[in-house]
Design a protein that fits this description.
mainly beta; Methylamine Dehydrogenase, Chain H; Immunoglobulin-like; 1 helix
Length: 439
């Protein structure tokens, strides 16, 4: 028995390594610089101009360990091996097509590319490295998305002569036969589209940038019928679904700040409309979710990528990238993460934000509320409270704190009842928790 106990004790002192697939790198297409930047998300390091693109890149995507770059003016699709950093192929899509977006169709193993000027969709066979078919669609197609054996493409109906928009639509293409099988009419200027967790299609319609504001059409794919329209306003163009079930829309903003709009993807309730957007760097061209509580926003005008924490819906970090960031893509790699089993090691390896006490907090007795956090080493700390709009309500602590556990007492008797968030920011990162105030 003593020998068995000794073995258990020794094993408990070891750490186990677990392999996990996580997003470790964010790639940024710099439209004006005609380059691609890389951001190491685990180390917060930036490498600008790591790849050179063709003329006027418009969209990038990562599939497996390859980066695909679609160039509109040079009309090419570049393929880069991310493990070696070398370009492995460039596919010529044909002249005078102005390719805009592309999608991978798993059921057919082909890539479908929308061609803005040619009013068509090109079908690309990666194994052959060439275009194998062309499908006629509506006028000035942009967004494109493969779902099962169907491909959905948005027709903006833009008239380049009169600079006006006609009737927008989504054409439904049967991938095996490569024929258009249905048409869904949309509000003005449909640009991008995505599938929510319930399998519904959300079509982002930008409006005409003048008297017709933006909206999102929600479609039941089993019947291709319209479920509802979210009249969110502004000029949204891109969409991403956060892990919290919220749809985030990149909506430009070319003045003092950029705009990201948001609504509940299931109830369709507007959370951040055009009148109170999530403010970012100016000129948001693309948004992307990592599935772990973050939304990345490409701020074209300010040459940066902002990171939005979806628990507080506000920017918590920014990365300076190349000239004119547009499209974003995440690379998921397999890494080993060490899990400690030593029960006696009580000091946190980084930092811990604990739940406030008491919780909920009653307005009538909101004095002496305790907020606690632990640090593994001396660090500069900012502990703040935010409302659901992302507005800072109160700084609880700010300055350099020693390693160990710290307790901050605060008076919240001026807070109204409702949901709030408190955020601990250190050099190691950020943690957020919810704070509920009751009448």
């Amino acid at each position: 028995m003593k020998k068995w106990l000794a073995i258990v004790f020794v094993l408990a002192g070891f750490a186990s390594a677990k392999a996990q697939s996580v997003y470790t790198n964010l790639f940024v297409e710099n439209n004006l610089a005609e380059t691609v930047s890389r951001i190491d998300l685990s180390e917060n390091r930036i490498w600008n101009n790591v790849f050179t693109t063709g003329n006027v890149p418009n969209q990038i995507q990562v599939r497996g360990d390859s980066l695909y770059i679609l160039n509109s003016v040079s009309s090419t699709l570049q393929i880069v091996d991310l493990n070696t950093g070398k370009e492995v192929n460039t596919i010529d899509l044909g002249a005078h097509k102005n390719p805009w977006n592309f999608t991978f169709c798993k059921s057919s193993g082909l890539i479908f590319v929308s061609n803005l000027m040619a009013n068509s969709v090109s079908v690309v066979d990666l194994q052959k490295g060439t275009v194998v078919d062309s499908i006629s669609v509506g006028t000035a197609p942009e967004g494109i998305l493969a779902v099962g054996k169907k491909v959905y493409v948005t027709n903006t109906a833009f008239d380049a002569v009169t600079f006006s928009y006609g009737q927008g639509s989504v054409f439904v293409i049967d991938a095996p036969s490569r024929t258009v099988v249905d048409t869904i009419l949309t509000p003005t200027n449909p640009q991008n589209l995505a599938i929510d967790s319930g399998g519904r299609l959300h079509v982002v319609c930008t409006g005409n940038f003048a008297n017709l504001s933006g909206s999102v059409l929600v479609v039941d794919l089993s019947t291709n019928s319209v479920v509802d329209t979210v009249k969110i306003g502004g000029s949204p163009s891109t969409i991403a679904f956060g892990a919290n079930g919220v749809a985030y829309l990149g909506a430009g903003g070319w003045g003092s700040h950029g705009n990201v709009l948001a609504y509940n993807a299931q109830t369709l309730a507007i959370l951040h409309g055009a009148d109170h957007p999530i403010q970012t760097g100016a000129g948001v061209m693309d948004v992307l979710a990592d599935g772990e509580g973050h939304i990345f926003a490409a701020a074209f005008k300010e040459d940066r990528v902002d990171v939005i924490d979806t628990q507080v819906d506000s920017v918590v970090k920014s990365f300076a990238v190349g000239d004119g960031p547009g499209s974003l893509a995440l690379w998921k790699t397999t890494v080993s993460r060490v899990v400690e089993h030593k029960a006696e090691n009580k000091r946190p390896r980084q930092f811990v934000l604990e739940q406030n006490y008491p919780n909920p907090v009653c307005v009538r007795s909101a004095q002496g509320i305790r907020f606690s956090f632990q640090l593994s080493q001396e660090d500069n700390v900012v502990l703040s409270v935010y409302n659901v709009l992302g507005q800072k309500m109160l700084d609880l602590a700010a300055g350099k704190f020693s390693a160990g556990r710290h307790v901050i007492e605060a008076n919240l008797d001026r807070f109204g009842s409702g949901l709030y968030f408190y955020r601990l920011k250190t050099s190691r990162g950020i943690q957020v928790r919810k704070l509920v105030v009751t009448p």
